[in-house]
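Worked example 3 (structure in, sequence out).
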C-alpha cells in the first residue's frame, strides 16, 4: 500500500545564540522532499541528483530530477528481478517516480538479466551532464561456448536521459576481452563491471576536454580488479584496465577487489586525467590507488595507500573533494568495518572510520601525509558512503557527507562535515541528520526510519536558491529523502559606545531627578549572501547586557539601561537588508549612585541570532515552499560581541598606567624541606601568610588561598590591629577537590601596605595515600599590570608520610593426639571421619597512628606431606570475620576436595567442579597411600619430626586475603582471618605412629600494597609461624594381635624342608668327605677263579709332609 503522509508536527532546530556551532547547519530537516518506490525493490540503494539542462529553467524545479536505483525491482520484461532505474521529479508528491526504459528486452540466449541488479550504481555529472546506470551482475553467455560470464553492463545517457545512440543495449567493457582469440580472456569473465561508476566532474570540464565514465571491474583477474574507461558522449574507448599480471609499483594482488569503488578526481596539473579506486580486500587490509591516464592511454597507478588496520574494508567507498580550497582534490576514504575496542566508551568502542588525505604534493602521491581521521559509533558502518556534496555554504571549500546507515540499531544517520582552508575539515560535524529529525508520516513513524544514509548524493542546486541539496537513500524502506539547502547569511555587526573612558568624579546626565554619570550604546548591522538569488530583509533578535562577570559572581551591576530600568535589554529586534546598514536607537546606560569599583571596566555584551520560523510540511501535490524564510547564519559566526568602558584613575595620570607589585610569602609549621606532614602524629597545620604592595595602589586587590578539601578550615587570625582585610572561606561543596579562602584586601590596597595573618587547618582527615598536596596563595588586582608577577603567587608543597605499624599473629591448638584406625578416602562421609579439628585464627592489627588502605595477608598452609599424603584437610574456604576483606586459595581444588559435610548437619563448602585439576592430584594421593609405610615408620621411629613447606617436608596451599582499610580507630584497627581444617588421622597412624612427636608449621605474613608513602616503625612483626605438635595417644593405640597357630605350623614345616634341601645340596658338593694325606690308586689283580678284581690302594702323598 502506498503511504500518503499528511501535514505533520515539525521538529524545530533552535539556534542557541551563545553557541558558535549549530547542529542544524544548513540542510532543512523540517521540509524534506520524500520519494517512495515499489515495495521489495531496494529503491534508494543508489541515488543521484540531476538537472536536465545547464541553464536555469523558467519554471522552478521543472527540470530537477532524482535518479534512483532499485536493483531488485521486478519490471515487465521477461526476467526475474532485473532491477530498474527511476526518475523522480522534484515535487511534494511521494509516489510520482517512473522507471526508465533502459532495458526493453528480457532474457536472450546471450544476455541473462535475471537478478542483474540494474541500478546498483547511478551517477550524474550534474546540470546538463551525462548520466550512467549499471548492472554489475549482468551475465553474458556466448553462443559458441557452454559457459556463463558475469561481465556486468552499464547504460550511458545524455542529459535528457536518452540512451547513448552508439550503445543503446548497454556497454560491457569486459566483453571484448573474453573473446576466444584473446589469450587473457578468461581473466575478465567475472569482472562485474559497474559495481561502482563515476563520471568526470563538471567543474573540471570545458569545451576542449573529454569527459569520461569510470567503471569499477573488481572481479577481473581472480578478483584482482581494475577500472574501465569510456569517453563521453559519442565514442567508446576500448577497455583500459590496469595491467593485471604486473604487481610492481603500487599494484595490488589477487582478491583485492580493486574497482569496488571509483571516483574521478583532479590530483595534478596538465592534460592528465586522474582517478581513485578502492580495493577493500587488498591483503586482508584494504588499499586505495590513485591512477592517471594521459593522451588516451590505459590508466596507470600513481600511488597506493594501505589501511592502518586489517579487516576494516578500507576503500569500500572513495570520493574526491577540494576541502581546503587549493584547487586540487583531496582524497576521502571510507573504512566502515573499522573497529577499536575502548573500555572507557559506554558503547564498548568505535565502529567505522573515514580518512581524509590532503593533496599536498599535487602529483597524485600522498607520501608522509597524516590523514584526518573521523570515527563513528560501534556497529554503525560509519564510512560505508562518502560523498562530495559541493560547497553547501559558499565559503570556497567543498564539503562532504558520510553515511552511517546502521547507527542506532539500524536507524541510520548522515554526518555533514565542512571543508576548511587551514584544517582541511572542521570538527565536529556541522550537522548530524537522523530519521528522527524528519517529520512523521501518516503512520506515525518517521520518514526513512532504517538504513538511512545507505546512499547519498549532493552538490546540485535543485531548487535554484543558490545552495545545493543533499539526497539520502534508505533502501530497506524503499525511500529517499531530499533535504534542501537553507540560505546562508553573513552578518556584519558593530556595537558602538559613546565613550570609552569615564571620570568617576564627574556627572554628565540626570536620572530619576539626580545628577548621574551616563553613556550610550548603539547597534548597527547589515548582511550579505553569496547566493545572488537571496536579497530579502531579515529579522535579527538581539540582547544587550551589562556587567556579566560581576553578576556571575553574585555581585550587583553598577549600571542600568534607562529603557528597561535593569542591567539588560532583552528580546530586541532589528530588520536588516542586504548590504544596507540598519541601526537601533541610542540606548542610555546609567551608573548607579554610590558605585565604588572604578578599576574594573564596565562590559557591554551583545548576543544576536536569527529567530526560527515555523515550517509546515506541504500536502502531496502542493508547491514546494521557498527556502527564503529560513535563512541561517554562516557556520562559525561570532554571535557574541563585547565592548568596555573604563574609568580614569589617579595612578594613571602620569603615564596612563597603574602599575602595582603585590608580593606574597607563606610558611607552615612542619619540619623538613619540603615540609612533611606525618599523618596520625600531627593533627593541625598552622600557615603564616604575608602580603605586601610595593608599588602603586592596587584596585580591587584580593588574595585567594586554595587548599585541598580534606584540609579543614579552623580559624584565621592576625596579630596586627591594622589588618583590615575581609577574609572568608568558601562554602564547602560535596565532591569538590579544592576549596578556598578569599581575602578582599582593599579598593584600593594602598602603596606600601604590609599585612600578615595565620590560618589554622585541621589535618586529621588528610588521607594517608595523599603523597603530596599544595597550598596556593595568589594575589591579584584589576590594575593594568604588575611589575613583578612572579611574586604574585606562592605555593607550599607538603609531602605526606603515614607512620604506622601493622603486625600479624596466629592462634590455634598447640598440641593434639592421634589414635584410632586407618580409614580410606572412599569410606569417609563426614569431616569427623578425617580426624581432629584444627582451627586457626590469624589476627592482623594496626597499631597506628597512620591508616593502611590496602593490606594483603598470605598464609602458607600445609595440606599434605611431601610424599603426597593428606596432612591438614581444609574443610571450607578461609574467611575474614565481619566481612572486612576476602580470601582465596590457590589451588582452590583442595578446599573440601572430597565434598564432605559435618556430621551434625548443615551445609558444606562445595569442592571445585571436576575437570579443574583435582583428579590428577587425588590419584597421586591414593597411589601414595597404597605404598608400603615401613620405611617411613623406620625413619621416624623415636624422632621429633617437623613438617614445614620451607624445608620441603610438606606442601602448602597459598591463602591470600585482601583486607579492608585498617585505621587507628577501635573496631577498625583489627581484622581476624579464620582457617578451618582437620588433622588427617590415617596419615599419622600409617607413617608417624613410632615418632616421638610431629610438629606442623603454618606461616603467615602481612604486607602493605601500593603504599610507598607508609613508613612502618617495625617490620619484624610482619611474619608469624604457627606451630602445632602432634603426638600418638599410647593408651588408646590398638593392641597387637597374637599370631594364628596355622601360621606357626607352616613356618616350622617350611624351616624343616629348607634344612633338608640344604643338607642334600652340601652332600652332593662333597661337603661331608674326609680329607687325608693319602692318595689312592686303582689296582686290578687276577684271582684263582680266573676273575679280575679291582681295588683302591693308598699311597703316601708328600704334598702334606
Amino acid at each position: 500500500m502506498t503511504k500518503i503522509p499528511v501535514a505533520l508536527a515539525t521538529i524545530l532546530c533552535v539556534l542557541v545564540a551563545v553557541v558558535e556551532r549549530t547542529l542544524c547547519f544548513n540542510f532543512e530537516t523540517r521540509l524534506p522532499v520524500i520519494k517512495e518506490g515499489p515495495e521489495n525493490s531496494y529503491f534508494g540503494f543508489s541515488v543521484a541528483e540531476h538537472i536536465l539542462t545547464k541553464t536555469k529553467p523558467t519554471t522552478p524545479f521543472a527540470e530537477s530530477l532524482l535518479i534512483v536505483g532499485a536493483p531488485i525491482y521486478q519490471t515487465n520484461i521477461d526476467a526475474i528481478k532485473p532491477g530498474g532505474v527511476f526518475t523522480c521529479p522534484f515535487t511534494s508528491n511521494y509516489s510520482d517516480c517512473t522507471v526508465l526504459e533502459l532495458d526493453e528486452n528480457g532474457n536472450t540466449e546471450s544476455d541473462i538479466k535475471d537478478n542483474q541488479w540494474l541500478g546498483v550504481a547511478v551517477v550524474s555529472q550534474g546540470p546538463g551532464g551525462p548520466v550512467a546506470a549499471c548492472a554489475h551482475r549482468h551475465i553474458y553467455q556466448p553462443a559458441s561456448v557452454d559457459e556463463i560470464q558475469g561481465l556486468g553492463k552499464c547504460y550511458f545517457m545524455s542529459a535528457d536521459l536518452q540512451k547513448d545512440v552508439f550503445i543503446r543495449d548497454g556497454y560491457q567493457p569486459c566483453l571484448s576481452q573474453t573473446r576466444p582469440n584473446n589469450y587473457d580472456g578468461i581473466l575478465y569473465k567475472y569482472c562485474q563491471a559497474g559495481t561502482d561508476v563515476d563520471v568526470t566532474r563538471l567543474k573540471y570540464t570545458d569545451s576542449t576536454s573529454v569527459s569520461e565514465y569510470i567503471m569499477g571491474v573488481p572481479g577481473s583477474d581472480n578478483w584482482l580488479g581494475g577500472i574501465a574507461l569510456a569517453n563521453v558522449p559519442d565514442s567508446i574507448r576500448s577497455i583500459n584496465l590496469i595491467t593485471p599480471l604486473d604487481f610492481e609499483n603500487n599494484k595490488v594482488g589477487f582478491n583485492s577487489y580493486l574497482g569496488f569503488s571509483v571516483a574521478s578526481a583532479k590530483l595534478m596539473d596538465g592534460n592528465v586525467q586522474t582517478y581513485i579506486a578502492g580495493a577493500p580486500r587488498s591483503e586482508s587490509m584494504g588499499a586505495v590507488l590513485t591512477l592517471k591516464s594521459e593522451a588516451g592511454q590505459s590508466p596507470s597507478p600513481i600511488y597506493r595507500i594501505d589501511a592502518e588496520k586489517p579487516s576494516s574494508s578500507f576503500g569500500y567507498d572513495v570520493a574526491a573533494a577540494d576541502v581546503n580550497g587549493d584547487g586540487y582534490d583531496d582524497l576521502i576514504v571510507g573504512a566502515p568495518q573499522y573497529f577499536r575496542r575502548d573500555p572507557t566508551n559506554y558503547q564498548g568502542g568505535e565502529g567505522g572510520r573515514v580518512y581524509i588525505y590532503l593533496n599536498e604534493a599535487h602529483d597524485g602521491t600522498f607520501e608522509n601525509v597524516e590523514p584526518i581521521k573521523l570515527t563513528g559509533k560501534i556497529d554503525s558502518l560509519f564510512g560505508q558512503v562518502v560523498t562530495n556534496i559541493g560547497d553547501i555554504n559558499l565559503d570556497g571549500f567543498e564539503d562532504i557527507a558520510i553515511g552511517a546507515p546502521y547507527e542506532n540499531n539500524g536507524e541510520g544517520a548522515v554526518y555533514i562535515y565542512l571543508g576548511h582552508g587551514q584544517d582541511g575539515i572542521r570538527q565536529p560535524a556541522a550537522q548530524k541528520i537522523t530519521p528522527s529529525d524528519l517529520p512523521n508520516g501518516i503512520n506515525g513513524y518517521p520518514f526513512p526510519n532504517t538504513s538511512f544514509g545507505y546512499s547519498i548524493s549532493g552538490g546540485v542546486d535543485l531548487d535554484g536558491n543558490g545552495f545545493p541539496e543533499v539526497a539520502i537513500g534508505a533502501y530497506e524502506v524503499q525511500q529517499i529523502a531530499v533535504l534542501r539547502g537553507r540560505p546562508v547569511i553573513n552578518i556584519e555587526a558593530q556595537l558602538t559606545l559613546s565613550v570609552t573612558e569615564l571620570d568617576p568624579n564627574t556627572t554628565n546626565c540626570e536620572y530619576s531627578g539626580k545628577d548621574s554619570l551616563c553613556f550610550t550604546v548603539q547597534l548597527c548591522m547589515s548582511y550579505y549572501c553569496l547566493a545572488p538569488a537571496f536579497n530579502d530583509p531579515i529579522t535579527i533578535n538581539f540582547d544587550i547586557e551589562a556587567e556579566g562577570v560581576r553578576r556571575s559572581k553574585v555581585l550587583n551591576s553598577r549600571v542600568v539601561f534607562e529603557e528597561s530600568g535593569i542591567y539588560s535589554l532583552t528580546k530586541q529586534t532589528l530588520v536588516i537588508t542586504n548590504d544596507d546598514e540598519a541601526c537601533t536607537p541610542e540606548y542610555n546606560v546609567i551608573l548607579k549612585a554610590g558605585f565604588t569599583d572604578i578599576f574594573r571596566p564596565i562590559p557591554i555584551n551583545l548576543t544576536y541570532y536569527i529567530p526560527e520560523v515555523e515550517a509546515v510540511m506541504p500536502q502531496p501535490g502542493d508547491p514546494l515552499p521557498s527556502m527564503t524564510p529560513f535563512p541561517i547564519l554562516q557556520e562559525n559566526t561570532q554571535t557574541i560581541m563585547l565592548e568596555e568602558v573604563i574609568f580614569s584613575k589617579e595612578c594613571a595620570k602620569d603615564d596612563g598606567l597603574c602599575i602595582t607589585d603585590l608580593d606574597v610569602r607563606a610558611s607552615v609549621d612542619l619540619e623538613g624541606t619540603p615540609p612533611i606532614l606525618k599523618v596520625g602524629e600531627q593533627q593541625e597545620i598552622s600557615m603564616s601568610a604575608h602580603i605586601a604592595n610595593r608599588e602603586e595602589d592596587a584596585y580591587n586587590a584580593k588574595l585567594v588561598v586554595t587548599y585541598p578539601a580534606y584540609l579543614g578550615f579552623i580559624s584565621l587570625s592576625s596579630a596586627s590591629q591594622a589588618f583590615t582585610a575581609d577574609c572568608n572561606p568558601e562554602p564547602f561543596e560535596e565532591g569538590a577537590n579544592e576549596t578556598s579562602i578569599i581575602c578582599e584586601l582593599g579598593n584600593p590596597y594602598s602603596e606600601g601596605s604590609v599585612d600578615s595573618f595565620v590560618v589554622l587547618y585541621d589535618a586529621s582527615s588528610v588521607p594517608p595515600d595523599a603523597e603530596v598536596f599544595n597550598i596556593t596563595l595568589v594575589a591579584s588586582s584589576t590594575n593594568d599590570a604588575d611589575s613583578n608577577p612572579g611574586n604574585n603567587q606562592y605555593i607550599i608543597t607538603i609531602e605526606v608520610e603515614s607512620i604506622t605499624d601493622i603486625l600479624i599473629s596466629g592462634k590455634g591448638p598447640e598440641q593434639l593426639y592421634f589414635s584410632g584406625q586407618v580409614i580410606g578416602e572412599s569410606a569417609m562421609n563426614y569431616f569427623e571421619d578425617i580426624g581432629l579439628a584444627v582451627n586457626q585464627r590469624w589476627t592482623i592489627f594496626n597499631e597506628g597512628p597512620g591508616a593502611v588502605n590496602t593490606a594483603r595477608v598470605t598464609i602458607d598452609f600445609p595440606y599434605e606431606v611431601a610424599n603426597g599424603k593428606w596432612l591438614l584437610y581444609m574443610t571450607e574456604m578461609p574467611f575474614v570475620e565481619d566481612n572486612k576483606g576476602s580470601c582465596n586459595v590457590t589451588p582452590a581444588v583442595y578446599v573440601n576436595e572430597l565434598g564432605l559435610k559435618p556430621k551434625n548437619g548443615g551445609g558444606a563448602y562445595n569442592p571445585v567442579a571436576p575437570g579443574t585439576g583435582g583428579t590428577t592430584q587425588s590419584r597421586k594421593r591414593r597411589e601414595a597411600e597404597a605404598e608400603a609405610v615401613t620405611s617411613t615408620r623406620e625413619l621416624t621411629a623415636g624422632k621429633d619430626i617437623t613438617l614445614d613447606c620451607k624445608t620441603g617436608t610438606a606442601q602448602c596451599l597459598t591463602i591470600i586475603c585482601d583486607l579492608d582499610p585498617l585505621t587507628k580507630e577501635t573496631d577498625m584497627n583489627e581484622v581476624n582471618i579464620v582457617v578451618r581444617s582437620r588433622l588427617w588421622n590415617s596419615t599419622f597412624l600409617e607413617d608417624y605412629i613410632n615418632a616421638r612427636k610431629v610438629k606442623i608449621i603454618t606461616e603467615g605474613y602481612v604486607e602493605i600494597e601500593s603504599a610507598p608513602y607508609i613508613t612502618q616503625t617495625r617490620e619484624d612483626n610482619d611474619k608469624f609461624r604457627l606451630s602445632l605438635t602432634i603426638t600418638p595417644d599410647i593408651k588408646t593405640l590398638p593392641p597387637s594381635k597374637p599370631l594364628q597357630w596355622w601360621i606357626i605350623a607352616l613356618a616350622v614345616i617350611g624351616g624343616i624342608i629348607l634344612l633338608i634341601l640344604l643338607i642334600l645340596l652340601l652332600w652332593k658338593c662333597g661337603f661331608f668327605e674326609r680329607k687325608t694325606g693319602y692318595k689312592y690308586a686303582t689296582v686290578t689283580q687276577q684271582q684263582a677263579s680266573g676273575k679280575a678284581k679291582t681295588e683302591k690302594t693308598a699311597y703316601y702323598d708328600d704334598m702334606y709332609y
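Notes: The first strand starts at residue 27 and ends at 36. The chain has a mean pLDDT of 85.
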